[in-house]
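enoyl-CoA hydratase: structure tokens wanted.
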Amino acid sequence: AKKAKGWEKQADRKVERAAVLGAGIMGGGIAYQSAYKGVPIRMKDINQEGLDLGLSEAGKLLSKRVNRGRMTPEKMAEVLNSIDPVLSYEGFDDVDIVVEAVVENAKVKHSVLAEVEQKVTDDTVLTSNTSTISITSLAEALKRPENFCGMHFFNPVHAMPLVEVIRGDKTSDTAIARTVAFARQMGKKPVVVRDCPGFLVNRVLFPYFDGFSKLVRDGADFQAVDKVMQRWGWPMGPAYLMDVVGIDTGVHAAGVMAEGFPDRMQLDFKTATEVMYENNRYGQKNGKGFYDHG
Ligand code: NAD
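Answer:
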């Protein structure tokens, strides 16, 4: 029989209350999924617009279910009520786990993680939904790095089954066990992976984006590339995917990958995605990216 890993031997680490930092594309989706699966969650952002956006996205997903007859309006109200939107750390002393989902910037994440560590109890597990930044390097901001690991969801959170749980150098089995338990409570399929920039999925995905950038540099039309990749069987091509991810997040994540793998992922030209970014075209989130989203 397969030998159980350390964290698999841990007692049940079910989460009763959770919190998420950042109410953007990912934070809003994480709050929705947690609440929908019965785990009440506090959702913190730095501005009211962010919170409103996160809540309205959750509302849209729930309304769809109600309209299709898959959920009662009462249940919808109950789910929405179990998302607690906050602008401060009020109530963070009674959560079992925190998922940090603020912008993809190591400096911002360091300061947010150090800040939230002071607001939670000693055994609260802190996690980051970073796409690419090494968990061991983020843990440097913390006094209790053993309580910290990666919890990497995929977009859109409600639809994507995978969650990467990333073990940093100092991560304890307890932290992994609780994060795996939370992912399962959310109906997800967690996989525990080792730490490096990009973890597993983005180690595969970013070279693909680089391949796309080189094709466009060499004169390919991005819409034609998208069409071909779709016809090949993928749900969308690379340019459209960038628009869904968020061009700003994509550019920041590509920077982390280039720094992490300078021999393989450093590009010596300005990519089409970088040009979009310079022109404030952030994708679906602000209505325009490679495509216009109306
Ligand atoms: P986003 O731009 O949609 O949202 C970021 C949110 O964080 C904004 O609402 C912003 O106001 C808020 N924020 C900024 N500083 C904050 C702070 N100090 N405290 C609380 N909130 C703060 O970004 P996103 O796409 O949701 O990405 C969030 C994280 O998830 C990033 O690390 C990103 O790499 C990762 N991620 C993104 C995707 C994706 O497809 N977009 C997929 C997986 C992981």
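The chain has a mean pLDDT of 96. Residues 21-27, 44-47, 50, 101-104, 108, 112, 129-131, 153-155, 245-246, 249, 253, 285 surround nicotinamide-adenine-dinucleotide (CB under 6 Å).

Cheers.
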